[in-house]
Amino acid sequence: MRISGTFLDEITHDIPSNNWGRAEWAEDFRIMKSIGIDTVIMIRAGVGRTAVCPSQVLSEQADIFPVYEDLVELFLDLAEENEMAFFFGTYDSATRPSRERTLDQEVQLGKDFIDEVWQKYGHRSAFKGWYLTFELGKMEKHRVECLRQLGAHCKGLSPHLPNMISPYLHGRKLVDDPISLDQHCEDWNEILGVLAGAVDIVAFQDGQVDYDDLPDFLRANRELITKHGMQAWSNVESFDRDVPFDFPPLDWRKLWWKMQAAEQSGVEKLITFEFSHFMSPNSCWPAAKNLFNRYCDHLRKAGELD
Fold it and tell me: Could you tell me which residue ranges the DUF4434 domain spans (predicted)?
């Protein structure tokens, strides 16, 4: 399997900005297509007071800063030019869970924004799905209910389009209170049962547990996702969580190992967070170019790239 999808993160919440304009983004989409990427997922349309597109809803309800360029329009243009599917990432209040809004207020803001987005961009041919940006790693009833209600709302507007989530593993590389595989399975069996009908694709992040433990989590995730009638993808992170600073491009050997483990687990598709920062030859990280070159070497040896 090759990586055939990537997140787009231009609301740079916890990684540095590439500060790209249309020309740089156009070149990056061209490079993505050249290595077989056919799906791009905007990780979020807004976080806190920052947004990627003008929005009356976010201006009134989230007091966003002025938006000078519509990046959604740009990404849709480039996705259409390169025959890619584009998933729209919803708004993230960044309060995890909200400390300023009640559940009803949080959900209503999300629904109002989704309505606005669908009216403005829903006709575009590249608009192929929704990404529900709230992340969780274990049972958190507030966030699960947010996901369920927002996913159901997207289905009401566009029943023909899939909804996607990318949860994390509540593991020791991320948190101080990691949960066991058994507890993970118990939580996610319950969570996916709640989300059935509102979520179609689940792409677990793969960077929060030790490499020795990852295959067991990957297999368990695929079994749980399939059990609940959803598609199992794997978010093969291309940044490194094992070094003492955040976040450099991943060592190629680690990426290769994780890709193999994901393929052996039986997932349907590999995506990454995130090509433009951590794998692109044009990234602000110099090491990303080297990771790109090693990945291309791998594809050539496999006969997947000229």
Answer: 3-285
**Which strands make up the sheet holding 46-47, listed edge to edge?**
50-51, 46-47, 91-92
Is 99 part of any domain? yes
Residue by residue, DSSP assigns 135-178 as --SS--HHHHHHHHHHHHHHHHH-TTS-EEE------TTT-SS-
Long-range interactions of 191-194: CB distance < 8 A, separation 24+: 191/136, 191/139, 191/144, 192/224, 192/225, 192/227, 192/228, 192/230, 193/228, 194/144, 194/145, 194/148
DSSP β-ladder status, 46-47 and 50-51: antiparallel
Number of domains in the chain: 1
Q: Which two tokens stand for residue 301?
A: 């040896």
Dihedral angle computed from the Cα positions of residues 291, 282, 167 and 79, in that order, rounded to the nearest 10 degrees: -120
pLDDT tens digits, the chain, 306 residues: what are they? 999 999 999 876 788 899 999 999 999 999 999 999 999 999 999 998 999 999 999 999 999 999 999 999 999 999 999 999 999 999 987 654 445 677 888 899 999 999 999 999 999 999 999 999 999 999 999 889 999 999 999 999 999 999 999 999 999 999 999 999 999 999 999 999 999 999 999 999 999 999 999 999 999 999 999 999 999 999 999 999 999 888 999 999 999 999 999 999 999 999 999 999 999 999 999 999 999 999 999 999 999 998
Alpha-carbon distances, residue 277 vs 7, 248, 291 (angstroms): 10, 9, 11
Domain membership of residue 177 (yes or no) is yes
Contacts of 86 (CB under 8 A, 6+ apart): 40, 41, 42, 75, 76, 79, 124, 126, 127, 128, 129
Domain extent, residue 45, equals 3-301
Query: What pTM does this model have?
Result: 0.96
CATH number for the domain including 264? 3.20.20.80
Q: What gap in Å lies between CA 103 and CA 140, rounded to an integer? A: 12
